[in-house]
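Exercise 7. Predict the structure of Peptidyl-prolyl cis-trans isomerase from Muricoccus vinaceus.
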Amino acid sequence: MQRRILIATSIATATGVMMSDATTNEAEAQANADNTLYLDLKDGRVTIELRPDLAPKHVERIKTLSAQGFYDNTPFHRVIEGFMAQGGDPTGTGTGGSQLPNVPAEFSPPAKARFLRGTCGMARAGDPNSANSQFFIMFGPYPSLDGQYTIWGRVTSGMELVDKIKRGSGSSGQVQNPDRIVKMRPAGAA
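Solution. The predicted structure, encoded as tokens:
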């Protein structure tokens, strides 16, 4: 009799642990899905980890516009070798944006986040609070941007596909016949 109780207790304990782990794993998976963005390019899929801990308003804007299909078929209008690829302007001129109001700056101190290879930042005009829909992905580190632009995510897979985006010419990096975003969606909506 005592042996059956021990076995039953062991099974209950093991089951409880497994249920607890499963619940934790499901919660983590959901949190990861909520903070993952899929960027489909002509050569394949790029996965971006969103950083609401750094820029909650910018992450919400990217998620909202992505879920609406705003970024689909928009060009990478400014692409500078060794620096970054910029997109998110449906006009392709670098002056367009969404109909939503601009997002106030959420700059991170360099000790917390830096512009490195694969970092995703929000483009803006001279006014720090002028970010709207345009974003960029870094090809390499660029310390002069640290603390000056909002970081909202980072590429976790597919950076080799970002490296294939057609480059622009001259110091402006303006691209003729640019590569386009095929589709961009939050992982939960993809």
